[in-house]
Amino acid sequence: MGYVAFQYAEALFSLSAEENQIDSVYNGFDAFIKALDEDIYSFLYHPKVSKNDKKEVLSKVIDNKMVMNFMNVLIDNSRIELLQDSFIEFKKIYENQNKMMSAFVYSGIVLDDKEMKQLQENLSKKHNRNVTLENVVDPSILGGIKIEFEGNVLDQTINHYLHSLKSSLTK
Asked: Is the N or the C terminus of the chain less surrounded, counting Cβ atoms within 10 Å?
């Protein structure tokens, strides 16, 4: 389903680029995805709710016309299950076009602003992109950090070092 979601996202991105509305579509799509909860998903996936009813309800909560049209296409094609994946793919295209990159920094404790800023600057220089970092606290990390971005993992944690050492000693 990843490729199909990518096709939908690419079509939406191309159309929004033609209409010079990339930022507003991204913001509208992002806001809608963040507002979704289990009740809305249940409503959208429910087989006994008609397509027209789904569209009517969504038209009252989605402000961006292009995002609404996109939702209509997903509903008409019975592809609402691609909604989350389509947004993920759209976000990747958007970030790539705008030389942006999102990364997660895992650490045992909350990193202070100075450490986050230093990491952000280093990643920005290395990848020639504007980097957005999110610090995720994982109490199981004994020390160090792990950074995940675009499918890559930089693991500089003590846990990783100890695991590597254990593997080397047991060979």
From this structure: C
> Model-level pTM?
0.75
Tokens linked to 116: 């986050």
Quick: pLDDT tens for 23-59.
Answer: 999 999 999 999 998 998 899 999 999 999 999 999 9
Query: By the 8 A CB rule, do 4 and 74 touch?
Result: no
Cα(137)–Cα(143) distance, integer angstroms: 11
- Do 53 and 119 lie in one domain? The reply is no
Closest CA to 127 of 160, 103, 145: 103
47 with 91, same domain: the answer is: yes
| Torsion sign across C-alpha atoms 136, 122, 150, 165 | negative
Residues in CB range of 138: below 8 A, 6 or more apart: 106, 107, 108, 146
Q: What is the 3-state secondary structure (H, E, C) of 62-88?
A: CCCHHHHHHHHHHHHCCCHHHHHHHHH
Total domains, the chain: 2
Alpha carbon distance 127, 139 (integer Å): 29
Query: Do 89 and 52 lie in a common domain?
Result: yes
DSSP state of 107: E
